[in-house]
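TICKET #2291
ISSUE: user wants both folds in one file
ATTACHMENT 1:
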Amino acid sequence: MQQQTSSHKLYVLVDSSLSRSQQAVQACHAVIEFALKYGPEWKHQSLVILRMKNADEIDEWYLELNTTYKDKCRSVAFFETHWDDRLTAIAVHGGDELFTDIPLL
């Protein structure tokens, strides 16, 4: 079971190789999935949208979040069915120190 976190931020990692409008929609999808899964436990305070360079970088983060950091954060990935179930965004609560060097969207 994943640890509870005291962070007040929900980070959304988005593939920036998508168009701006697609980035916005994919980020929203990830936040909705996170809220559906953790809604009763998670209280929204702050949303931070971060830019991933491309599909490879977001895939690497997905792997790291589900292996190395799985006890530090709660995360939900969004896979876009219209693009062959491609990973486009990840919503992450906790692990504030992990995201300090990633640029904002």
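ATTACHMENT 2:
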Amino acid sequence: MSNFNTPLRSGNYVGEIISQKLSKSKNDNPVFEAVFGHLGFQTADGFEQVDTGVTRTVFMHLTTKSQAYTVRKLAECGFEGKPSQWNLDSEEAIDCTGKLVKLHMKITEYGEDWDVSLGSG
């Protein structure tokens, strides 16, 4: 059990991409950052709206080891392109803001762990 205090429950969510940017990890690998808002928690009856001011960020690292997995997650966000095109400052940017994406969150000893759901568990 975590001692991290969060108002949210572990489980499946849907969220809207409200911003996106590309950064670099400490090992100089691309990191795709997607900020999600308008979150809904999945219940047996559909989705329960989360407080409208709540946002969460998903960090998707692109390494040799994670490449296939990250590319699948980016496709779920509506993105299929070169890493530089994730930056909205790029002339050839692919803007995924407004896209609704299935998410999963679990609470760990370090806090909330958010990820794009690929429907595989």
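RESOLUTION: both attachments delivered.
EXTRA DETAIL ON ATTACHMENT 2: Residues 60 and 118 are 13 Å apart (CA to CA).
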